[in-house]
From TrEMBL:
Biological function: Catalyzes the transfer of a phosphate group to glutamate to form L-glutamate 5-phosphate.
Protein family (similarity comment): Belongs to the glutamate 5-kinase family.
Location, primary (coarse class): cytoplasm
Encoding gene (name): proB
Catalysis performed (reactions): L-glutamate + ATP = L-glutamyl 5-phosphate + ADP
EC number(s) reported in the record: 2.7.2.11
InterPro entries referenced in this protein's UniProt entry, alphabetically: AceGlu_kinase-like_sf (IPR036393), Asp/Glu/Uridylate_kinase (IPR001048), G5K_ProB (IPR041739), Glu/AcGlu_kinase (IPR001057), Glu_5kinase (IPR011529), Glu_5kinase/COase_Synthase (IPR005715), Glutamate_5-kinase_CS (IPR019797), PUA (IPR002478)
GO terms of molecular function: glutamate 5-kinase activity
Gene3D superfamilies registered for this protein in UniProt: Acetylglutamate kinase-like, PUA domain
Annotated positions binding ATP: K18, S175, D176, T217, G218, G219, M220, R221, T222, K223
Residues spanning the membrane: none
Location in or out of the cell: Cytoplasm
Name of the protein: Glutamate 5-kinase
């Protein structure tokens, strides 16, 4: 395989750096500073230049498992994984604090924190304040209270959501592989690195293999998904080998040896981005063909007359999917009414809402300002 050349890194003032378990887990169990030291030096160098960084770090489960090395835990058991995550959070944070001259703050996020608009904005304000007082936020999913059906699942996608949350200019993903390849370089000696990706197409996604680590939950596919989310928010993503000291050091000089994923040409409005990419709700509002067509045309609110039925339960202010008669999602939005009320007003005219419910929060089930269309 040909050596990957350096390329300019986009200018940035605020970035999110994601570090996976494969860079932190020691061969004999527990955590090791072997690769974290160089990454921490890059963070410190960037902070000295007046830049801001949010760290999304894995490693808690690996650290917890090492502390209970004598016990054979059934890793498929959710409660055991949650216990390991709770146990390992302290040593994971301690590792980063030992490598940082600045104070380190732990921020644990859940699916509901990112799905609920109010909590999403609270998390945003907290992270921004931590950056303002020159603290290094270390973000992770709150595995201890998550349940399988509501888990974010991997820190690659969490990092992309956090990048949009804090209005980052750049998403940095430290991996154990040099770049995106057109084939698995561990199995194919002719695999070629791809230094620049203008758009993540189905063909690019097809290049992704599975996870190459026994301790992590992500693989190349989740990294591409994260880059895709970041691109939709106008954020570039740099994928690089966090085990290569020269590669990490070059980042501080504005040079990347890895794959650069370019953002979309136009930055999506932050609120619309959140509506599309916050973790999905299990609930949905089914609409008729006419309403689906009106929504697809843009600029329309979802009115009760176009509602056919409701799938699942939700409350006023929740984020729900809007699906057409075939079950295809056409939009996502914040509902003005709970599921019980929407069922009662389905198919009715907006002027009938007060008479049916005894009150009204307005004529729309989902107002157009709280609605984002799904790309077709």
């Amino acid at each position: 395989m040909a050596e990957l050349a350096f390329q300019p890194l986009p200018a940035w003032r605020r970035a999110v750096l994601k570090v996976g378990s494969n860079l932190l887990a020691a061969d004999g169990g527990g955590l090791t500073p072997t690769y974290a030291q160089t990454l921490a030096a890059f963070i410190a160098h960037s902070q000295a230049q007046g830049r801001e960084l949010v760290l999304v770090s894995s490693g808690a489960v690996a650290a917890g498992r090492a502390l209970l090395r004598a016990r054979a835990l059934p890793v498929a058991d959710l409660a055991e994984r949650q216990a390991l995550a709770a146990l390992g959070q302290a040593p994971m944070i301690a590792l980063w604090q030992s490598l940082s001259s600045r104070a380190v703050a732990q921020v644990l996020l859940t699916h509901d924190d990112l799905r609920n608009r109010r909590r999403y904005l609270n998390a945003r304000a907290t992270l921004r304040q931590l950056l303002a007082i020159e603290v290094l936020p270390v973000v992770n999913e709150n595995d201890t209270v998550a349940v399988d059906e509501l888990k974010l699942g991997d820190n690659d996608n969490l990092a992309a959501i956090v990048a949009a949350l804090v209005d980052a200019d750049l998403l940095l993903i430290a991996s154990d592989i040099d770049a995106l390849y057109n084939a698995d370089p561990r199995r194919d000696s002719t695999a070629a690195a791809i230094p620049h990706v203008a758009e993540i197409t189905p063909q690019v996604l097809a290049m992704a293999g599975g996870s190459g680590s026994a301790v992590g939950t992500g693989g190349m596919r989740t990294k591409l998904q994260a880059a895709q989310k970041a691109a939709a928010a106008g954020i570039a993503t740099a994928l690089f080998n966090g085990r290569d000291a020269a590669t990490v050091q070059a980042l501080g000089e504005g040079r990347l040896r890895g794959t650069l994923f370019m953002p979309a040409q136009s930055r999506m409005q932050a609120r619309k981005y959140w509506l599309l990419h916050a973790p999905a709700s299990a609930a949905a509002i089914r609409v008729d063909a006419g309403a689906a067509s009106a929504l697809a045309g843009g600029g329309a609110s979802l009115l009760p007359g176009g509602v056919v039925d409701v799938v699942g339960e939700f409350h006023r202010g929740d984020l729900v999917d809007v699906i057409d008669p075939s079950g295809r999602m056409v939009a996502r939005g914040l509902t003005q009414y709970g599921a019980v009320d929407v069922r009662r007003m389905a198919g009715r005219h907006s002027r009938d809402i007060d008479g049916v419910l005894g009150y009204s929060y307005g004529p729309a089930v989902v107002h157009r300002d709280d609605l984002a269309l799904t790309a077709v």
